[in-house]
Amino acid sequence: MSYTVKNLNQGDRELIAFRIGDQEFCVNIMSVREIRGWTPATAMPHSPTYMLGVINLRGAVLPIIDLSARLGMKPADPTARHVIIVAQVRRKVVGLLVDAVSDILTVTDEVVQPTPEISSELERQFARGILAIEKRMICLIELEALISETESEAA
Amino acid sequence: MDMNEIKEIFFQECEEQLAELESGLLKMNDGDRDPETVNAVFRAVHSIKGGAGAFGLDDLVAFAHVFETTLDCVRSNKLEPTQDVLKVMLKSADVLADLTNAARDGGSVDESRSRGLVKELEALANGELPSPSAAAEAPAPKAAAKPAASAAPAATPKPTDDSGFQPVPFSFDDFGGEGDVGSGLPAYEVIFKPRFELYSKGNDATLLLRDLSRLGEMTIYCNTDALPGLEEIDPEGAYFFWNVTIRTDKGEDAIRTVFEFAEWDCDLTVKPVDEAAGNTSANEELPMVPVPFDLSILDETGAAEVSSAGNRANETAAAVAAAETASNVTQMAAAAARVEKKESAAAAAAAAAANAAAQNNAAGAGQTIRVDLDRVDRLINLVGELVINQAMLSQSVIENDTTGTSSINMGLEELQQLTREIQDSVMAIRAQPVKPVFQRMSRIVREIADMTGKSIRLITEGENTEVDKTVIDKLAEPLTHMIRNAVDHGIETPEKRAAAGKNTEGTVRLTAKHRSGRILIELADDGAGINREKVRQKAIDNDLIPADSNLSDEEIDNLIFLPGFSTADKISDISGRGVGMDVVKRSIQALGGRINITSKPGHGSVFTMSLPLTLAVLDGMVVTVAGQTLVVPLTAIVETLQPEASAIHSFGANHRLISIRNSFCPLVDVGRILNFRATQANPVEGVALLVESEGGGQRALMVDAIQGQRQVVIKSLEANYTHVPGIAAATILGDGRVALILDVDAVVGASRGQSLKAEMSLAAVG
């Protein structure tokens, strides 16, 4: 995956796209700190099912969220081929387990279409729009929504 | 660097000076009459005054000035530092500390106290020796007599307050001054010999001489006798001195004021001279040839050099300039050296010796730098990573290396040793001596002794024992509480002590020492000891123990740590609100420490605290629970045991008790509490950890296996996740994986029915 910094026009934004199962999602690249391979996590007691546990990220304790389970799909069975997207959400750093990172996109705001109203509550909760790129459909995820629950737990 | 930062440094230095001051005074109190001790005390007050003056902290300056004047009397042997005098001085040191704090943080100080002390200090300086009673009573009538003076040194933080200097008698005896100050002679002879320290502290001889020139008409000679050849010259040394004759109507005081802040770093002689005999007398006394010296050169070179090379360069530059303008300077100096060979050689030797002594002093004090704590913490974190990384590397090499003889293994071992060493050294950076905390205690003892009318002596030992800064910071509060208790409850009144045949002066001994990787702090008093009958009765009255309970002496002694226990008949100002020792115990436990008491009726009590050396690492027992690795803090564990089937007794539907030496202790399945497994494990297959929790109760925690005992670095879970009930923190083990540190108190609490799960299920819903 090669990428060179282009001069971004006003209103352009860069997104990082990844796969979970046969679906594609993307998040704002500015939130992403790094991408790394899967390492076994230490389970946390009493944690929600999508919380896989914590891993050691160069000395920091990093919680890992199974994004598939978090979005209401079937829980992942992590293997060495899975990747973790390390993202900064508000003041916390979390790891998102996904199947693979697929692309980096530069899009303008107009490309992002509104999410159609469907009954899936989770889709409504996390999706912020849909992009049509080269006949693929990519769903834009709002990171803040992903850990809003963990945030309120702390409160 | 803005003004506030400089001010912050000043206050940091003030703290050091105050500590120096107090330890010096205490040494004198113990009979130390070394002039160097007196000088050190004087210097401390003087430095505070100097700095405070620079920042316009008038209250501080005013008080320090009076204090300094009295100390000067001691220094010049005009005032004998008796116990009573030192008592006043120690109190003054306390007030000085209060004033410093008030200047830093705002807030106010006890004005009447500082005012009273100013009176006492002035009385001492005027040679009125205090009798113990007079010292206490004197301030009141005097305050009425001198109402104007009382307002001046008042410790209000208002800068508008009239707090200028009071005229105070100042002794010049040690300077060899002989003439009357006010005798009307207009000419003075000033010999100003700067020492190396003067320049190193950023003072400038040029500026001082220029200031002096403003007082009146003056003639100035620079003496260059001591200037060595160019190859021997120390560019940072001080070789010149100046011989000034000045005509002024401002008096000797004004001349001295010019040199006030440099006084300690130069040899200064000021004396009035007979006009006719002025210069000759100087020549007779000092083996030197005055070299005519033009002040304007001093000014030019001074100005040029301040901007480029700094203060110390001034003298060298001035030397060059002087040599240029008066080319015969060196010849003259050489001639003078020949003529006065003996004297000047002796003088030079003396100067060299003094210089060497000063440098030795500096070396002995140890060189220090101030480093931001955050930087140290980051370094500690990184080194922690290094250790883990190194362990991971070793592990993977061992796994992949089948021969087992490669040089890689040897290299790894060396790396391991190095990283351990680095870790130890880095941890040592955070370590600080407990001295500051101990010194604070001496003040508390003084104050409470005053309040209660008891006579107490505090002896501290091992105050240079080092421990992590965070531990020190958190130690002060429980220690204060315990000292108060010891003085208020432990030590008897002088009358009672006399009746018991003891020394009327009570002794409190505070000791710190290292023992097996922990710091041991002992607080011993020689008071009445614990009245076990009274303690027992009180505990029964407060429903803390059943009336018919049979307790050992030790158990009774430890009752005082129970919440809501206080034996004081009347609630005093100092202690006895019933929030005493249980709070102490809890704060010590929060630090990962333990506290114990042993008491001997009639002979006093000893409190022993054992604390970890640092809060960044923790001694833990690594255990396995339902396939997960957990760390249990070692401080919580009383003992470990392998339960036998016969010792396990079911109690109701879900509970089990384990019998340990004929007492029954509830069995807590950690895996079940943390929801790691659905059903209770078979206790016989596991290991029981007998733990003691905050509430004092014992529980047996069931784990599957013990992996070992090790020191772990504590990592926050909250930083990126959230607080997890039952888990105190996380750590990273040698294999690079995260392990959770068990919160024993929470787990025990959960087993009591304060369910972790209830709290948790709420959290899961969000």
Name a few traits of the molecule.
heterodimer; A: 155 residues; mainly beta; OB fold (Dihydrolipoamide Acetyltransferase, E2P); five-stranded mixed β-sheet; 14% helix; 46% strand; B: 766 residues; alpha+beta; 5 domains; six-stranded mixed β-sheet; flat
Quick structural gist:
Chain A: One of its GO terms (biological process) is signal transduction. By secondary structure, chain A is mainly β.
Q: What string gives the helices and strands of chain A in order?
A: EEEEEHEEEHEEHH
Low-pLDDT sequence parts of chain A: 1-8, 150-155
Percent in strands of chain A: over 45%
Mean pLDDT across every amino acid position of chain A: 82
- Principal-axes geometry of chain B comes out as flat
Tally of structural domains of chain B = 5
Low-confidence stretches of chain B: 131-183, 277-330, 332-337, 570-578, 754-766
What is the number of helices of chain B? Answer: 27
First-residue to last-residue Cα separation of chain A: 40 Å
CATH superfamily of chain A: CheA-289, Domain 4
Strand order across the biggest sheet of chain A?
Answer: 8-1-2-10-9
Number of domains of chain A: 1
β-strand amount of chain B? 15-25%
Widest sheet: strand ordering of chain B = 15-19-20-18-17-16
- CA radius of gyration of chain A is 15 Å
Number of beta strands of chain A: 10
User: Could you name the CATH class of chain A?
Assistant: Mainly Beta
Helix and strand content put the structural class of chain A at mainly beta
Largest interface (CB < 8 Å): A-B, 30 and 37 residues
Shape descriptor of chain A reads: globular
CATH topology of chain A: OB fold (Dihydrolipoamide Acetyltransferase, E2P)
Protein architecture, described:
The complex is a heterodimer of chains A (155) and B (766). Chain A contains four helices and ten strands. Helices cover 14% and strands 46% of the residues of chain A. In chain A, 35% of the residues are buried. Chain A has a single domain, classed as Beta Barrel (OB fold (Dihydrolipoamide Acetyltransferase, E2P)). Chain A is globular and about 40 Å long. In chain A, a hairpin with a 2-residue loop joins strand 9 and strand 10. In chain A, the strands form two sheets. Chain A has a five-stranded mixed sheet with strand order 8-1-2-10-9. Chain A has a five-stranded mixed sheet with strand order 3-6-7-5-4. Chain B has five domains: 3-151, HPT domain (Four Helix Bundle (Hemerythrin (Met), subunit A), Up-down Bundle), CATH 1.20.120.160; 173-365, no CATH class; 374-432; 434-612, Histidine kinase-like ATPase, C-terminal domain (Heat Shock Protein 90, 2-Layer Sandwich), CATH 3.30.565.10; 617-765, CheA-289, Domain 4 (OB fold (Dihydrolipoamide Acetyltransferase, E2P), Beta Barrel). Chain B has a six-stranded mixed sheet. A five-stranded antiparallel sheet of chain B has the order 4-1-3-2-5, sandwiched between helices. A five-stranded mixed sheet of chain B has the order 7-9-10-12-11, covered by helices on one side. In chain B, a hairpin with a 2-residue loop joins strand 9 (506-515) and strand 10 (518-525). The radius of gyration of chain B is 34 Å and the shape is flat. The model of chain B is unreliable at 131-183, 277-330, 332-337, 570-578 and 754-766 (pLDDT under 50). The chains are: A mainly beta (155), B alpha+beta (766). The A-B interface holds A 39-48, 53-56, 58-63, 92-94, 148-154 and B 381-382, 384-385, 388, 628-629, 674-676, 715-727, 730, 732, 736-740, 756-757, 760-761, 763-764, 766.
